[in-house]
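Example (one chain per record):
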Amino acid sequence: MEHAPSIDSRSGDGESDEADARAGKVPAGSQTLLRGLDVLEAVVAGPVSLSDLAGGLGLTRSTTHRLANALIERRYLAMAPGRGYQLGPKLLELGFRAQQQIDLVQVARARLERLADRTEDTVHLGIRDGDRVLYLDKIPGTRRIAISSRVGDRHPLTSTGLGKALLVDEPRATWEELFAADQAGGAVPIDWDVWHGRMQGYVTAACAFDLEENEDQIRCVAAPLRDVTGQVVGALSVSGAAQYMDDSRMEMLTRDVVDTARQISEDLGWDGSAS
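Predicted structure:
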C-alpha cells in the first residue's frame, strides 16, 4: 500500500494548505485530510500517546491534539485512559459494512452473470445507503445499448427498480417520507396514489419495476435479496432499453429475476420462511 505524502511540522493548516496548493503539491484543503489519515494509520498497532503521536508524524502537539479531537468526535478515534489514542468504533462499523458489501458481490456474482447471459440485458446489484440506493456491481448486457449507471453511483430509492425492491418491507410512513423527499429533490413527477398502488403490487409480487422513472427510455425489473434472518440486504435488477422492455417482456422477466434473487438469498442463508 502506498503511504500518504510526508507531512511537515507547520501547525497553521490553512496557510500550509494554500501554500502547498500554490506550489502544485496538493489541492487546497487536502493537507488536513491527509494528516487525519496519517493519525489513523499511526494508531493501527495500538494505543499511542499524544507526544509519541505528534513526534511520529512530525506535527506540533497542538495540531495533533486538534486533529485527534476531531476524529474522536466523529468516532474514528477513541481515548484509552492511561494509554493514549486508539482506533474508534466508527472504523469497526465501516469495516463491517465494507465486508458485507464485498461478501454480497462475491456471493451474487456468478448468478448475476448467468442472468445477464440469459436476458442479454444489463444486470445491477445494489444496497440501501441511507436515503439512496448504492450500486455495488454491474454486468453489461450484450445489446448495443449504453446504460449510464456505474458501480458506486447513488440514486433515489423511490424512482429506481433496485430502490423500490429494497423498500418492500418498509412501512407506509417510510415510503411517504422518502417519496416526498425524492419528489422535492427533482425526481420524475408521479402521483403518490399511483406510486403507492404500484408499491403494494410490488410487495405482493416480490419484485419491482422501474418504468422510465430514473432514466429516460430505460426500464428494469428488480427483486430484493434476503439474508439468513429474512432481512432485505440488497436487490438485483435487469435493465434495458424501453424498446426491448415492453410490459409483456417485463412480466416475462419477473419469474427469472425473482428466482435468481431467491437463489442468491438462499446462498446467503435464507430458508424462505423468515421475513
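Caption: The domain at 13-87 is CATH 1.10.10.10 (Arc Repressor Mutant, subunit A).
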